[in-house]
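Z., the sequence and structure:
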Amino acid sequence: MDVFATHPCRLGEGPLWHPTRKALFWFDILDKTLHCKGATRHSWSFDEYVSAAGWVDDDTLLIASASGLWRFDISSGARELVVPLEADDPSTRSNDGRADPQGGFWIGTMGIKAEAHAGAIYRYYRGELRQLFDRITISNAICFAPDGATAYFADTFSQRIQKVALDTDGWPKGEPEVFVDLRADGLNPDGAVVDADGNLWNAQWGAGRVACYGADGVLKRSILVPASQATCPAFGGPEGTTLFVTTAANGVDERQGGMTFSIDAGVMGQQEHQVIL
């Protein structure tokens, strides 16, 4: 395991390996900042909370903020509103999000003070933003099976990861069901990503680890990281086998808290899916 970025984030989140730029993007939500490290290092500051992104093309991201989804020009830093996201509710912000295999973008919201049931999970697809699930306290673990037939998500507060079947356009069909129940172990599911073989890798807040579950929901392995508040994993790197993990320094006194780590996981990740705008 290596330290990929020593800069301590108060709340590191949303790591995204951009496959054409060969660079990692990630956020510090509480500092309202987007970081990038590839051949060079760069950061952008915002006037509101930002938390997650998908890649549109070599020079464009779709970024989720407290008020909307934005087309973001990497070269100039300019942004253009695509669609509002709970813009009329100043008590909420975006949190976890990821692009799906069909080209859509899922994004969760939550109360700024983690108020009970204040958030929801949405999907943006071909010009439409649709609410999928409501009464979410802390939206997390949004990720997708390689065949695009299953989505995963969690409300960290519930300590359970859910799964839901998807139709051919990527919309949920049927009701979600429990994929992994972590209540007995006292574990808190944060961000997650699915590898090329269909295994789900989940960062577990407070436990300082990323746990890997098979498609059957059975724990296969876990990797410890030297910061207790692990927030989100993402696969990337030159061969697609590097597991990046963001963490959070807020509220803890840890030497490596808030740093971003890279791990040779020994498995192939999915390439991050491209958002269709």
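Residues 203 and 210 are 4 Å apart (CA to CA). The chain has a mean pLDDT of 98.

Let me know what you think.
H.
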